[in-house]
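Appendix B. One record, verbatim.
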Amino acid sequence: MTEGNAGADQPLAALRAQIDDVDSQILDLLARRLELVGEIGEVKGRHALPIYAPDREAAMISAKRALAAERGLSPDLVEDVLRRCMRESYTHEKNMGFTRQAPDLGPAVVVGGGGRMGSLFARMLTLSGYDVRVVERDDPPEQVASSVRDAGLVVVSVPIHDTVAVLRSLPPLPPGCLLVDLTSTKRAVMATMLEVHPGPVLGLHPMFGPDVDSLAKQVVAVVPGRDEAASRWLVEQIRLWGARVHELPAETHDELMGLIQALRHFSTFVYGWHLAHEDHDLDELLALSSPIYRLELVMVGRLFAQDAELYYDIITASPDVVALIQRYLTRYAQAFELLLRGDREEFVARFREIGDWFGDHAETFLAESRGLLAHADATR
């Protein structure tokens, strides 16, 4: 150690001790904040209020950003801290429980409730005060029949390729029982539910994985089936859980899922396949990656830490996906032809055409991505 460094030890130690003291105060304040969040959760539960209040959140963030600027702090820093606090708050509030929207409902039966998504919905229904029963697709028929005999809700949460068969294998449900599925394609499943059950039918597609800490800000696609009035309570229950509900017909849902899920997953699969055969070590790519490329590798790599059969089912679930991917390959070939011709002018024209399609969203996405890239850079 040099003499200059030795001279810095004492003042640095004193300053770091003060920082440690401030950090301790921050921890105390965070603990107090969570206590207040718990009290808020209890009030919301008593008065049937959703845990996610977007207007309140936006107003609070705006006010705190302005206050940060007045105090010479970075508004972005303060917003980052507050958003992380709010994410923890939503998880904390969730554990306080929710108002039961259908107080007279019979038992809620989750078929496939031992799976990850099924268990998530079983847990949320339990937190909302419902009598929840779990059955599996391989349970004896008499056990399933006994479980659904007096059911007010039956939720089917099984792999996509098994859903239609499981629906057809269900025993007769009570006439007023609401039958629901959680699959990512809807046309065939909705048609089957409407065929096998004469009572209320509703399609749900949670647009998130089962490992979420809270449903706050998550999206649930809702596909009406039969007797919307009889399923309104469940839609409102999901809103109370903090989710955003988006209603659309089955045909539109499946068309959009082709772009949102199937095409994206297939493109990621092919890109990962290509990387794996380019004879370069992944650690070398990571060592030289910019924040945006590292983030891209993260999004690609996370796919391959999951269930291969699940993603095959998602990609191939709709018969329209093959045609969609074929159109994508055609446009890919057209874009590649621009490079082969060295056609800068046409490339720029197509680039601007795409920019026009994105419109104002392009600038919004650019701003949003800066936060993601900063986080990716900070965690390297």
